[in-house]
Amino acid sequence: MSSARMGVMTAYWISIYKEINDEAKLGAYAALAGPALIDGGGTFLARALPEQVYEAGEATRTVIIAFDSVDAARAAHDSPAYQEALVALGDGAVREIRLVPGAE
Hints:
By secondary structure, the protein is α+β, with helices and mostly antiparallel strands. Helices cover 35% and strands 30% of the residues. The chain has a four-stranded antiparallel beta sheet. The longest helix has 17 residues, at 23-39. The model is unreliable at 1-5 (pLDDT under 50).
């Protein structure tokens, strides 16, 4: 039985970087956050600047990570390992993170 049929739906963690203030802090964050989120069940789908934006889109760094569920994404965010990554990032970036359920 698929996870969607069992009431569990894939979720997407979408990070939109509005400003990057300190590349060194961002690098320290990435070194900790990547492994923490993978260990939390995440699969990185995209990490880049957009090739094209439309309407009110902004050409800012965007990260998309797939998780088995919103609960799994939330748990990865709240994990001690990811919280350590957030401390390393500090004021190095201004961003928005959304946890969005898949349309399955």
